[in-house]
């Protein structure tokens, strides 16, 4: 991705102070999604990372991760697997509780969706504390699949997510298109 492409993406991310809680600077990607040139640059860049790292499936994290991971899966020619907040998937699930920058949550995956033959890339918009990404890696491994990596639009470096995630990555790449 060129410097100009990075600048285009960054220019379409809106800062919202004190949302959803006082003290949080929320990174809002809706302006980027509304700009077809920027959304295409983002989709292509994340899809290229999937191909480079040999992913056979992408996991999208509800809800913003879905918006990015679905077009990335189509672009990269791999399957899309939803990781949903607890209670939304009808089949047999694996669950993982976690903490994120502004709360706690529980995510689930359909156990039968991925298996030993899969290399799975996790796609999301923001890496903050790393709690969400860490929980998703746990789910992927518990389902018996290999982690191809984590690919994120934006890493909030000052929150230390990369350091927290390091042990769970076990050498797999953490790719951030933008680091703040
Ligand atoms: O690194 P962390 O501290 O775990 O935070 C990052 C996560 O927080 C946001 O999702 P959120 O749970 O707010 O859900 P949403 O996608 O439904 O808005 C974001 O899309 C990431 O998934
Ligand atoms: N500051 C932030 N902005 C947007 N999404 C987030 N998820 C966790 N922290 C966030």
From TrEMBL:
<protein>
    <submittedName>
        <fullName>Adenine phosphoribosyltransferase</fullName>
        <ecNumber>2.4.2.7</ecNumber>
    </submittedName>
</protein>
<keyword id="KW-0808">Transferase</keyword>
<keyword id="KW-0328">Glycosyltransferase</keyword>
